[in-house]
Amino acid sequence: MKLLVLALFALAQGRPENGDKIDYRLLGAAKQAENGDKIDYRLLGAAKQAENGDKIDYRLLGEAKQAENGDKIDYRLLGAAKQAENGDKIDYRLLGEAKQAENGDKIDYRLLGAAKQAENGDKIDYRLLGAAKQAENGDKIDYRLLGAAKQAENGDKIDYRLLGAAKQAETADIFITFQESTAQTLQAIESTRFDTREDRLNAMNSALVRLAGRVQSNVLSYLQGRFEFKSFWITNQVYVKGATLDLIMVLASFNEVKSLKLEEIIELDTIGGAGGISCRGCATSSCARNALLACAQLNN
What's the burial of 95, exposed, middle or buried (CB within 10 Å: 0-12/13-18/19+)? Predict the structure, then answer.
C-alpha cells in the first residue's frame, strides 16, 4: 500500500499535466489507508459530512451521532429536541401525559386533577368537585361547615326561623311541603260530575291519598325508622317531630321538597259552651297544626 501511495504522489508531482486526472479523494483514501491507525474515523466522517453537507439531512447525521454516543445522551433530551422540531404537530396535552407517566411518582395527582379541571372547567359542576374534595379531606372538614354550604345551596327551601330554632334547641318540629301541591288534584275533582256528595268526597279522598303516596315516598323511606313523623295526604305534607339540623339539611336536598317550616301553634276561640270542648288531645284554646290536620283527615 505504501508503494501505491508513493507511486501516486510521484505520478502527480512528476506529471503535473495529469494532476487533474487524480481525484484528491483517492489520494486521501490512500493516505487514510496508510495512516489509518492515526486518524479517527469520526474525523473522516466529519470531513465527509462537510464535503457533502448539502446532501445529508442534519437529522440523519444526528441520529447516527445518537446511535454512536447513545449511552451519553439522555433519551429525554433527545425527546425534547424532537418535540421542539415537531412542536406544531404534537398536542401539548399528549406531551404532558407522557411526562406525567415518566415522573408519575413526583407529581401529586391532585395537581394534575387541577390542571385537568382548568382545561375542562366548563364541563364539571362545581358541586361535583366539591364533593370529591370533601371525600378526600373528609376528616378535616367539620360536618357543620358542610351543612352550612349545603344550606346556602338549598337556602331558599329552609325557613330561617326553622334554622334558628333548630340551632338553639338542637331539634325542631317541622312541616315538609312538596313541590307538587294538591291544587291540581282538587281542581280535577271539582270539574268532575258526581251523583252524590259522598261520591265526590270519596273520589277526593282516594285522589289525595294517591298523590301523597307518590310524591312523599322517597322522603318517607328516608325517615322510616329514624325519626317520628306523620304523613298528611289532605295537604300533601309530612310532619317530623324532633328534626335535627343535619336532618333538615338532608331533607332540603330532596328535589321534590319545596320548603321546610317550623310547626305553628294556632290560637283558636273557645269552642262550645262556657266550659268549652277540647279538640282531640288539644288544649281548649289552641291546637298544634299537626293536630288540626289530623282532625281534618279523620273527619273527611
Answer: middle
Taken as a whole, the chain contains a residue count of 300
Report d(CA 180, CA 182) in Å as an integer: 7
Break the chain into its structural domains and give their ranges.
1-45, 124-153, 156-263
Rounded Cα–Cα distance for residues 256 and 216 (Å): 8
Task: Output the pLDDT for position 132.
Answer: 56
**Residue 182 neighbours by CB distance under 10 Å:** 20
Higher-pLDDT residue of 65, 258: 258
Quick one: average pLDDT of 41-68? 65
Amino acid 272: pLDDT: 45
State the pLDDT confidence band at 138, using cuts at 50, 70 and 90.
low
Against a cut of 0.85, is the pTM above it? no
Q: Quickly tell me which residue has 271539582 as its cell.
A: 190
Tell me the C-alpha distance between 45 and 64, whole Å: 11
Residue 286: band (very low, low, confident or very high) from pLDDT cuts 50, 70, 90:
low
Contacts of 136 (CB under 8 A, 6+ apart): 110
The residues, any chain, with a CB within 8 Å of residue 149's CB and separated by 6 or more, are 130
* CB-count burial class (<10 Å; 0-12, 13-18, 19+) for 9: middle
How many of the other CB atoms lie within 10 Å of CB of 212? 23
pLDDT classification of 211: cutoffs 50, 70, 90: very high
